Amino acid sequence: MPKRFRLAALLAAAVVALLPNTARADVTYPDPQTVTGQQIIHDPTVIRLRSGGYVAYSTGGVIGARVSADRVHWDDAGNAFAEPPSWWYEYNDTGDPWAPDISYRAGRYWLYYAVSSWGTNHSAIGVATSPTGLPGTWTDHGKVFTSETTDTWNAIDPAIVRADGRLWMSFGSYWTGIRMVELNPRTGKAVPDTTVHHLATRPDAPYAVEGPYIVKHGRHYYLFASYDACCSGVNSTYKIRVARSTKVTGPYVDSTGKPMLEGGGDLLLAGHGRYVGPGGQSVFTDRGRAWLAYHYYDAEDNGTPKLGLNKLNWTKDGWPKLS
User: Fold this and answer.
1) Which residues form the domain of 282?
2) Cα separation of 27 and 13, whole Å?
3) pLDDT higher for 83 or 20?
4) Do residues 223 and 243 make contact, with C-beta atoms less than 8 angstroms apart?
5) Gap between the Cα atoms of 127 and 115, Å rounded
6) How far apart are CA 131 and CA 58, in angstroms?
7) Which residues pair with 93 in a beta bridge?
8) What is the pLDDT of residues 174-211, one digit of tens each?
9) Would you call 266 a catalytic residue per the annotation?
10) What are phi and psi of 92, to 5 degrees?
11) Distances in whole angstroms, Cα of residue 237 to Cα of each of 94, 117, 231, 263, 297
12) Which residues are within 8 A (CB) of 61 and not within 5 positions of it... i.e. 6 or more apart?
């Protein structure tokens, strides 16, 4: 680490030590694992396939795809779809999808994604299924949940979690933050007249929190979210925060007891060295080990967004820590 970054880390540690009521933050962030091949990605979702190997989907293209045999070397694998489903054009002129989420249940792979336009909450979340999880095998099933300009939420950045025999989808970006709805496990779509639960927000407009992902560990559910601004290369201020709850619908609180609905959240990962603005995160399991996948902007490569992977460990008091 360059001398100036070591000094910055020491100063940050001193500040944290003087603020005992500040949410826990690891200021010696680990670098991501080495990745080779096609490293460029944004908002990655990763899964280990039952057939072997890995696939990652992302924002860009018609849901861009990468494949890997070893989780280190990644190859470009085209797109999930050959062309955008026609209904996507209701939400932007180019049929551009964002922020997918892949999971496996009921003998099929499920791919959730969002379609919207920058700066509006006229948005929709869609779903597709596949027998293999590989690009070119997906069947689209249309809209799962939508938002309009009259709503106080934004239906983008979906992430699926199962809890107590029920299926849930967290989502949200700005527009008062992170929300959650229940899904019908057969169709994968929102149940009729579903309650829209509120999980996280910021006390200040524009409520810069988005990209939720929830996992269960022990008796708690952990909500990971991206805070501040993405998509500006080396000027991005993205960072990943986390809080937990004993109920999937919240309330989620950080290690100081501050609720995420009041702007709380422990700082899990922030920019350091060449790794600027980490966020757009998801979690996947590989041979019983949890991994955090995210993008960062490479300060040594003109701010190009690249794939970050770190092992997700847990402290003795049950909080996530990266290695």
Assistant:
1) 3-14+21-322
2) 6
3) 83
4) yes
5) 11
6) 19
7) none
8) 999 999 999 999 999 999 999 999 999 999 999 999 99
9) no
10) -160, 160
11) 27, 21, 9, 16, 10
12) 78, 79
Rounded Cα distance, 171 and 159, in Å: 6
Measuring CA to CA, which residue among 160, 152, 238 is closest to residue 198?
Answer: 152
Residue carrying the six token digits 């955008």: 84
Alpha-carbon span 251 to 160, nearest angstrom: 18
Kindly state the tokens that stand for 27.
């200021």
Phi-psi region of 63 (alpha: psi -120 to 50; beta: other; left: phi over 0): left
| Total structural domains within the chain | 1
Indicate which residue of 43, 182, 254, 266 is catalytic: 43
Residue 6 burial by CB count (10 A; 0-12/13-18/19+): exposed, middle or buried?
A: exposed
Rounded Cα gap, residues 272 and 264, in angstroms: 22
The radius of gyration of the chain from alpha carbons, rounded to an integer in Å, stands at 19
Residues 231-278 pLDDT 10s:
999 999 999 999 999 999 999 999 999 999 999 999 999 999 999 999
The whole model's pTM is what? 0.91
- Angstrom distance (rounded) from CA 217 to CA 270: 23
167 residue type, one letter? L
**Nearest C-alpha neighbor of 147 from the set 172, 167, 183, 118:** 172
Look up residue 48 and give its two tokens: 């280990």
Determine the Cα–Cα distance for residues 177 and 241; give it in Å rounded to an integer: 13
Beta bridge partners of 225: 241
Supply the CATH number for residue 267's domain: 2.115.10.20
Q: Which two tokens stand for residue 221?
A: 């559910």
Share of the chain above pLDDT 90, in %: 91
96, 101, 210, 254: the catalytic one is 210
